[in-house]
């Protein structure tokens, strides 16, 4: 990431970096530099402490005596090894031993001292002190301490990530070429999106190929997709494939409470990127920065708009031939400002959808490369069990399965752990120890048996894969899991009607068996009402209402201002007709389900009793009930009825 552009501040950039703790734009602080600074600091600190300890040790070994006592010792001839200094006298007792032998005294003006020593024939010598060094230290030490304190305070204020003086600096996390560590080989399930970005990689590697023909690479690439679909991973893969530095930051990193800070950070980011071109700037959650202007009047509105304006200006002002590529990601493209989406800004929009079954299988293979899998693990089957899962969901699935295997002290992850991990992610944590009274457990078993039996009877629904009456999550006392045989993108009216019938199966089973209903069908009724309501108002599947759509849900219109309830452009009479049609379709589905379960009442009871006994049903047992439900074989009791 070394740049050929001269750096400001002198001709010794490495020395400046060493002591200031800074690096050239586009680089992080080198750990080796940080280690060198750490070593130099502790070297001087250790030397200072050793000097203090040495002086303290020597001071503790020398006895300080009054000058009068010293003269008495001289008169008695009990001193030797005298050293006369201008301000002190050092010597030794002749008769004392050990640490108390040496002494020191402060010298006073006594012109007869030398004569006294000569009279008693005591040998003595003088010492010459270097006074310029203490004088120099007395000046330099306070100044040095002041400089160190000032440097420390300025570093805290300016160079740190939370420094006051660095508030206008970009907060982008910078990854060098070797630090990205992600390539297209680590991305799966979004082959179309990868193909869209291949020419971006080729441009960053060989820009001359495009410039020779007069081509201009798009200035910006906007990655649009649901959370967890791999937008950030794909952006890093582009940087890894191209072998260029990668600037990563979030849209919220630009905006602060101080006006003008966001715009300054945008300028600083682009200045760093130009000095380290070719490189990639990746702005995650672009909607935090690029929300449509003129929307909302709350605090921070002006600052966000100034930041957005600066981003628009920078995107207009830089030349793509310099090798700076801007990539951004969002899962809310409908609220972005139109100026960001026009040609010349974010020219190319890459939609990243949830992977299909083949894509999920490829993603599972990538995430399971470091996991020890048992021979019975079929990743294709696991992919079929996870419709609608995004890449992040699949990574979490593999991790959950590995944790379950480790908890059970297994050597490898088996298919059982994958199945349990799917149930845990979709249904929540299993709660086998939850105390449920027998009456409620019986209601739950008949409720789930009703769902399953209706699904087994109808033709245009997904097959039942598993039934459980073990509580999961916060409120689920049981569940009936259906797995699609293939990925579907369209639903017919017949399929929607059958799906509503399956949702009502639990409620109707309670009515038939107990003559009463419980609150357990609340979620089923809500989902059924949503499906029927959309059939009437969104899909044009009602002959009475017709083909016109009547949006009911409050949702923000694309680039048309704030979210909220849309203006209703139909009359109260039409609204009443919609309500009546929804109620009629739900009642028809209810009557149909009562007829289905009424004809299979004995089979419903047997399935509920078996579920009470086993708690979980899957595999061949469910297949046998499915054949009986469709009349493929005569009914045969599988569990003896309870005795009176």
Task: State the main characteristics.
644 residues; alpha/beta; Signal recognition particle alu RNA binding heterodimer, srp9/1; Rossmann fold; 5 domains; 6-stranded mixed sheet; 5-stranded mixed sheet; 14 strands; elongated
**Spans where pLDDT lies below 50 across 5 or more residues:** 1-29, 159-168, 556-565, 632-644
Domain count, please report it: 5
Shape: elongated
Strand content: 5-15%
Examine the secondary-structure arrangement and name the CATH architecture of the largest domain: Up-down Bundle
Discrete helix count: 22
| CATH level 1 name of the largest domain | Mainly Alpha
Instruction: Give average pLDDT, whole number.
Output: 77
Compute the CA-based radius of gyration. 41 Å
Biggest sheet details? 6 strands, mixed
Termini Cα gap: 83 Å
Number of strands: 14
Strand order of the largest sheet: 6-8-9-10-7-11
Helix content: 40-55%
Spell out the CATH superfamily of the largest domain.
Answer: Peptidase M41
Summarize this structure briefly:
With 644 residues, the chain is an alpha/beta fold. The protein has helices at 13-20, 31-61, 67-75, 113-119, 132-159, 177-180, 191-205, 207-211, 231-242, 261-275, 301-317, 338-341, 357-367, 379-384, 391-407, 415-427, 438-457, 493-514, 522-537, 572-599, 601-614, 620-629, and strands spanning 63-64, 79-84, 88-93, 102-106, 124-126, 173-175, 220-225, 246-250, 279-284, 324-330, 348-352, 464-468, 479-482, 616-618.
What does this structure look like?
It contains 22 helices and 14 strands. The protein has 5 domains: 65 residues, Signal recognition particle alu RNA binding heterodimer, srp9/1 (2-Layer Sandwich); 30 residues; 180 residues, 3-Layer(aba) Sandwich (Rossmann fold), CATH 3.40.50.300; 71 residues, Helicase, Ruva Protein, domain 3 (Orthogonal Bundle), CATH 1.10.8; 192 residues, Up-down Bundle (Methane Monooxygenase Hydroxylase, Chain G, domain 1). It is 48% helix and 10% strand. Strand 3 and strand 4 form a beta hairpin. By secondary structure, the chain is of the alpha/beta class. The strands form 3 sheets. The protein has a 6-stranded mixed sheet. A 5-stranded mixed sheet has the order 1-4-3-2-5, sandwiched between helices.
């Amino acid at each position: 990431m070394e740049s050929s552009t001269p750096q400001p501040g002198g001709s010794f950039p490495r020395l400046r970096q060493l002591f200031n703790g800074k690096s050239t734009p586009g680089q992080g602080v080198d750990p080796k530099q940080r280690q060198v600074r750490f070593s130099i600091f502790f070297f001087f600190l250790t030397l200072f402490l050793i000097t203090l300890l040495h002086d303290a040790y020597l001071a503790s070994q020398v006895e300080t005596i009054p000058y009068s006592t010293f003269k008495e010792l001289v008169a008695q001839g009990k001193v030797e090894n005298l050293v006369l200094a201008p301000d002190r006298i050092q010597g030794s007792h002749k008769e004392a031993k050990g640490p108390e032998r040496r002494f020191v005294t402060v010298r006073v003006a006594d012109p007869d001292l030398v004569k006294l020593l000569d009279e008693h024939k005591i040998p003595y010598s003088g010492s010459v002190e270097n006074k310029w060094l203490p004088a120099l230290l007395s000046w330099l030490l306070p100044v040095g301490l002041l400089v160190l304190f000032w440097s420390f305070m300025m570093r805290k204020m300016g160079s740190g990530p939370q420094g006051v003086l660095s508030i206008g600096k970009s907060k982008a996390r910078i990854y060098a070429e070797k630090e990205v560590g992600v390539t297209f080989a680590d991305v799966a399930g979004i082959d179309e999106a990868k193909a869209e970005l291949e020419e971006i990689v080729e441009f960053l590697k060989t820009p001359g190929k495009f410039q020779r023909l007069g081509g201009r690479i798009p200035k910006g690439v906007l990655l649009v997709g649901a959370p967890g679909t791999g937008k950030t991973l794909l952006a890093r893969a582009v940087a890894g494939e191209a072998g260029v530095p990668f600037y990563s930051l979030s849209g919220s990193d630009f905006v602060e409470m101080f006006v003008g800070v966001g715009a300054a950070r945008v300028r600083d980011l682009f200045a760093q990127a130009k000095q380290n071109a070719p490189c990639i700037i990746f702005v995650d959650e672009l909607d935090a920065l690029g929300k449509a202007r003129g929307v909302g009047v709350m605090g921070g509105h002006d600052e966000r708009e100034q930041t957005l304006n600066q981003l628009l200006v920078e995107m207009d002002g830089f030349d793509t031939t310099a090798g700076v590529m801007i990539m951004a990601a969002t899962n809310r493209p409908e609220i972005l400002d139109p100026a960001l989406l026009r040609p010349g800004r974010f020219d190319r929009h890459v939609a990243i959808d949830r992977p299909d079954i083949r894509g999920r299988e490829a993603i599972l293979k990538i995430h399971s490369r470091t996991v020890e899998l048992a021979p019975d693990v079929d990743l294709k089957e696991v992919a079929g069990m996870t419709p609608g899962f995004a890449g992040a969901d699949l990574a979490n699935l593999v991790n959950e399965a590995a944790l379950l295997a480790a908890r059970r002290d297994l050597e490898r992850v088996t298919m059982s752990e994958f199945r349990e991990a799917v149930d845990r992610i979709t249904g929540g944590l299993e709660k086998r120890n939850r105390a449920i009274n027998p009456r409620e457990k019986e209601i739950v078993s008949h409720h789930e048996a009703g769902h399953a039996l209706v699904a087994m009877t109808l033709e245009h629904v997904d097959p039942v894969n598993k039934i459980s009456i073990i509580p999961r999550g916060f409120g689920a006392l049981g569940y009936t899991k259906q797995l699609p045989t293939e990925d579907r993108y369209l639903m017919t009216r017949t399929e929607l009607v059958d799906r509503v019938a399956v949702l009502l199966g639990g409620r109707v089973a309670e009515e038939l068996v107990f003559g009463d209903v419980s609150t357990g069908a609340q979620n089923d009724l809500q989902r059924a009402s949503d499906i029927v309501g959309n059939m009437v108002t969104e899909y044009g599947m009602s002959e009475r209402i017709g083909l016109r759509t009547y949006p009911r849900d409050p949702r923000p219109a694309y680039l048309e201002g704030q979210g909220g309830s849309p203006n209703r452009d139909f009359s109260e009479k039409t609204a009443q007709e919609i309500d009546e049609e929804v109620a009629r379709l739900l009642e028809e589905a209810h009557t149909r389900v009562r007829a289905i379960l009424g004809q299979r009442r004995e089979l419903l009871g047997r399935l509920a009793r078996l579920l009470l006994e086993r708690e979980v049903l899957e595999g061949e047992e469910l297949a046998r009930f499915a054949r009986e439900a469709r009349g493929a074989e005569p009914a045969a009791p599988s569990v003896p009825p309870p005795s009176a």
